[in-house]
Structures are given as C-alpha cells and as structure tokens.
Amino acid sequence: MKRKAQVKDIAFRIFSGLFALMPAFFLEALARFCSLLFFRLFPMRRRLVLKNLQAVFPLLPPDERERIALESLKSFALTCFETTAGGLKPIGQDVPIEGAAHLREALTRGKGALLLCTHLGNWEALAAAISQQVAPTHVIVKKVGDGRFDQFVVWVRRRLGYEAIAKGVDQAPARQIFKALARNEIVGFVMDQYQHGAPEMLFFGYPTRTNTGLATIWRRTEAPVIPVLIERLAPHRHRAVVWPPLALERSSDPVGDIERATGQFNRVMEKMVLFRPDQYFWLHDRWKWKQDLQQRKSSAPWSIASLHDV
Fold first, then answer.
1. What does residue 137 show for φ and ψ, rounded to 5 degrees?
2. I want to staple 137 with a disulfide (CB 3.0 to 4.6 A). Which of 88, 103, 162, 179 is the partner?
3. How is 185-228 classified by DSSP, letter by letter?
4. What is the pLDDT of residues 256-293, one digit of tens each?
5. Residue 117 and residue 127: Cα distance in Å, rounded?
6. Rounded to whole angstroms, how far apart are CA atoms 15 and 35?
7. What is the pTM of this model?
8. Are 198 and 126 spatial neighbours (Cβ–Cβ below 8 Å)?
9. Are strands 163-166 and 200-203 parallel, antiparallel or unpaired?
10. pLDDT tens digits along 190-244
C-alpha cells in the first residue's frame, strides 16, 4: 500500500514537470482539443453549460453561447494545466496586480482582509500572486479528489505560495480564519458555488442556495471585504484586478446584515462574471435546474444595467 502511494506521488510530480516544460502554444492547443472532446463526449454537462449561459445571456444567439461555452472549457483546462505545472513552475510572482494599493491600504488597519473571489480565469494564480506580492494568503477550499490527489493539490498550492483552509464539519476552518486575520493576513472566499442548506438568494435573477460564510465572518470581525479577479492573457500570463473595499452596512440585526451583505456579494460576482464570461466556470450546476427558466426567473428580473448599482 505504501509503495502504491509512493508511485502515485512520483506520477503526480512527473505530470507537474511535463506541464511545466510544455510551450504555451502547445498548452493552448491541448486545452482547445480537451474542450472540444469534452463538449462532444459529455452531452449532459454540455447541456448544463449551455443552459447556464442561456439563463444569463438569453438574447445571445445560440452559436455565440456555444462559443463562450467552448472558451470557458478551454480556460478551465488551461487552469488545470497551469496549476499542475505550478508545482515546479511558480505562476504568482509575474502576475501584475492592478489596484493592489486597495489591499495594502486595508491591511494598515491591522485587521486582515477578506477577499471576494469567483471561479474566473486561473483563480489559483490569483491566490498565489496576492500571497507572494501583498501578504500571506489563505483560501477556503473543498477537498479535491481522493486522498493522494488532494495531497498533491495541497503540495502544489504550497509551492505556489499560499495556504488552503479545508472546509469541514467542525470549527477548525473558522479558527484558522480568525487566527489568520489576527495576524493581519488575507483570507479568500470563492463564493459562487451552490451551497446545500444555505438560504436561497438571487444570482443573475434566479434563486439559488448561496454560501453566507464570508458575510458571517465579516459580521464577526472588522476585516474589510475586497473583490478580486484575474483574467488570462495567454497561457501562463495573467492580469489580476483588485476593486475597492465594499461599503457594507452593519446594524443591530446580525441575520439581516448577513443576508444583505451576501446579496451584495452576489451582485458584485455578477459583475465579475460579465468581465470575462469566456473564462468563467460555467460547468458548475449553480442553480440546480429543475424547472423551466421562465418558471425559475425572479419577479425582479436581472439586467446588466442593475449591476452598476452595487
């Protein structure tokens, strides 16, 4: 059993080295091939991606939605390749960070900072860049695959220069978050996935269960919440963008504060998605579609114009 685990470890590191050695044009061609193959071999997932895009972009022609779908899958494949290579080819130190002054200014308060992130571009490179160039960064994550593969991902993330805080059923993640903030460090929340048991809130005009963890931590601390995103310019070339801290209202009603803040986070994440929809992770079943789009649509319809009032 131990020998089998060692073989897996060696194999993972070999893959990391291979992807690190691949030239950019080959990585892009491989990612495009993988996206086309996936699109044809997995019709259920293809339908999910296209339905998500139809919900958000109902006025776009079908062929344009399919183009965005393929670009999105290609972007995700590149994220996997770049991150795998990150074990031996760091990807954070060369990423320019526009608006990094917002983060550095927030940290002068000594309360740490909370990042609002989405699955856009190479989110692993985003965490690495901020951790290497601004301050130690921790990101709340879910376990990836089986034990050995998850350990490989943890190893890669540490090589990239940031720490992952694994979600769990006990209070350990919360304690790690509070300790990181007490050290005036940064904690990132990737907030755009369906959360079982969470309250339903609108995302692009459709109700979906939304994680309130970031809002809960914000309500219990004085740490500012700062939106950040990243876009890919080419394989292994990225640009990170930091937006100003959000103006969040605090009252004597903690439940109401958390709900309002989470709704505001969703509106900000909508703007992030629209920034580069072709690099967003549309593969996730965000809305758990069980009804027709029109039946699920909120009575207060989403519009691009409404996103400017955040």
1. -125, 140
2. 162
3. -EEEEE--SB-TTSPEEEETTEEEEB--HHHHHHHHS---EEEE
4. 999 999 999 999 999 999 999 999 999 999 998 765 55
5. 10
6. 19
7. 0.87
8. no
9. unpaired
10. 989 898 889 999 999 999 999 999 999 999 998 999 999 999 999 989 999 999 9
* Nearest one of 308, 96, 83, 109 to 225, comparing CA atoms: 109
CA angle 176, 177, 180 (to 5 degrees): 85
CA distance 144 to 77: 16
Residues in the chain: 310
- Give residue 225's identity as a one-letter amino acid code: V
CA distance 6 to 247: 50
Contacts of 155 (CB under 8 A, 6+ apart): 87
Q: Give the structural domain span for 259.
A: 93-308
How many whole angstroms separate alpha carbon 294 and alpha carbon 160?
A: 43
**Is 244 within 8 Å of 105 (Cβ atoms)?**
no
pLDDT computed for residue 268 by the predictor:
97
Q: Which residues pair with 239 in a beta bridge?
A: 231
Joined together, the tokens standing for residue 283 give 């593969």
267 inside domain: yes
Token look-up 């390749």 returns: 81
CB 176 within 8 A of CB 186: no
- Cα distances from 103 to residues 41, 112, 159, in angstroms, run 43, 9, 23
Extract the tokens encoding 66.
Answer: 């399919």
Total domain count for the chain? 1
Assess if residue 21 is contained within a domain: no
Q: Buried b vs exposed e over 279-308: b needs ≥16 C-beta within 10 Å?
A: bbbbbeebbebeeeeeebbeeeebeeeebe
Please report whether residue 53 resides in a domain: no
Does a structural domain hold residue 206?
Answer: yes
Distance CA 289, CA 247 (A): 32
* Whole-number Å distance between alpha carbons of 24 and 6: 30
Q: What DSSP character marks residue 273?
A: H
